[in-house]
Amino acid sequence: MAVDKAVKLDKFMEGVTARNPGEFEFHQAVHEVAIDIIPYIANKPIYKDLRILERMTEPDRIISFRVVWEDDAGEIRVNRGFRVQQNNAIGPYKGGIRFHPSVNQSVLKFLAFEQVFKNSLTGLPMGGAKGGANFDPKGRSDSEVMRFCQTFMMELHRHIGPNTDVPAGDIGVGSREVGYLFGQYKRLVNRFEGVLTGKALDFGGSQVRTEATGYGAVYMMEEMLSHHGEHIDGRSCLISGSGNVALYCAEKLIALGGKVLTLADSSGFIYAKDGLTKDQVDWVKDLKNGRRGRIQEVSKEFGLKYYKGKKPWGIAGELAFPCATQNEIDGSDAETLVKNGVRAICEGANMPTTPEAVRVFSAASGVLHAPAKAANAGGVAVSGLEMSQNSLRLQWTEAEVDLRLREIVKKIHDECVEHGARKGKQVDYFKGANIAGFTKVANAMLAYGVM
Ligand code: NDP
Questions:
Q1: Burial zone of 434 (CB within 10 Å; 0-12 exposed, 13-18 middle, 19+ buried)
Q2: How far is the CA of 317 from the centre of ligand 1 (A)?
Q3: Looking at the domain that runs over 61-192, which CATH code has it been given?
Q4: Using CA atoms, how far apart are residues 244 and 434, in angstroms rounded to an integer?
Q5: Residue nearest to atom 28 of ligand 1 (CA)
């Protein structure tokens, strides 16, 4: 029986690979889902015969466009922009925009595919999409970033709208970029409407949206631990990244009594043996959002150890939060974490663990591991709440939004337990998230007929 399932999975993946040559990140994301969904639909001919999973791997459409802009020195620059509109079966397309030199079609397809399942898990009516450009905002002046964003939106605005597709931020796209993008959209269509989330509070943003992904990951960790009668208080925590997700993850961990040992960026990581303080995290926020400085400066300011060119996974810690980028924990990092006694991994970043690392964690007895689609869904959940507030033309309080965020994360955890229960109190969070995310979208697609 197990052999039969493996054959079916291999055959399915052969088709995906042949149709999407060279798109390795996309293959990886589809494999991570298919491994659970193929056995799940084996006895459900309606999904199988109508090829729902195959259909879900084909984006509804991919828009690719040229972005030409002028830098401060008067040089003409050419970048490539994308929007992958993956699936809108349960609501308007929704998903972030990433500006990073590594952006290509494969990366955005993996992110858009994941987003479909994640958005479904939140229980809110949102389809899945992702977009971006191979543009690096690092080292660029505000006016260069503004010109880039405005030109990017010149094309993107034709394809989005509050009931069509609602982008948000992601790597390299924070409140500054969202402001420029939204301003340009508003100018082009001459309407003030909730077409982007992550807006500033002064022009239609939601309380807690900035914090939501990091906070949500910590709430997920709390749920996983409390399922076993445990808590965050007093536990040592490893975080990678020092961007939006990482910093609010650190802030919430500290508030709950966690000891945050590390923060990182693409150049290295800092190690605070006794744990970072809230003031130190606030200092990093100013550094990153204001001067856009490097993590190394934190070590100089506070006399902390800096490890150049290294990842934080060699430090002994109980709770790990990869919050930087895809495939940042490989098999050997995972082995080191397990050897050092890691209790749980909660994925703040999207697909931060390689397939080998997923296998290492899954084989290690007692290690809890929440995949990104469940663990970082808090961000898009509050984006969904921002859309609701924009439609209602009102703004909920911080306490109201935070409560809703906690409820959504709890519901996601419950669904993971329902669909991923193993022996005793053990939970396969990957399986649980995949099946729960799949079912709602699949049922909507069935209702629409063959299209
Ligand atoms: P930011 O741009 O705010 O921060 C990204 C951080 O990760 C930076 O510290 C950056 O370092 C580091 N990083 C980026 N690429 C690499 C790399 N190749 N190797 C090592 N470090 C790297 O992004 P976010 O915090 O918004 O996003 C982080 C992750 O969380 C991404 O996977 C994103 O898709 C995911 N996510 C974000 C959501 C959100 O609401 N923002 C929602 C859900 C998921 P450096 O500055 O040196 O590049």
A1: buried
A2: 21
A3: 3.40.50.10860
A4: 26
A5: 324
Q: Which of 117, 284, 325 should be mutated for ligand 1, with most atoms under 8 A from CB?
A: 325
* CA 256 vs CA 270, 282, 381: distances in Å: 21, 16, 22
Q: What are phi and psi of 165, to 5 degrees?
A: -160, 125
Residue 102 Cα: closest atom of ligand 1? 18
- What is the rounded average pLDDT of the residues 276-302? 95
Q: Which CATH class is domain 212-375?
A: alpha beta
212-375 matches 61-192 in CATH topology = yes
**What is the per-residue pLDDT across 309-352, written as a single tens digit (0 to 9) for each?**
999 999 999 999 999 999 999 999 999 999 999 999 999 999 99
**Chain centroid to CA 273:** 28
- Write the burial class of residue 40 (CB in 10 Å: 0-12 exposed, 13-18 middle, 19+ buried): middle
pTM here is: 0.97
Query: Would you kindly state where each structural domain of the chain is located, as residue ranges?
Result: 2-56, 61-192, 212-375
User: Whose Cα sits closest to atom 36 in ligand 1?
Assistant: 349
* Residue 130 a catalytic site member: yes
CA distances from residue 212 to 9, 194, 360 in whole angstroms, order as listed: 35, 18, 29
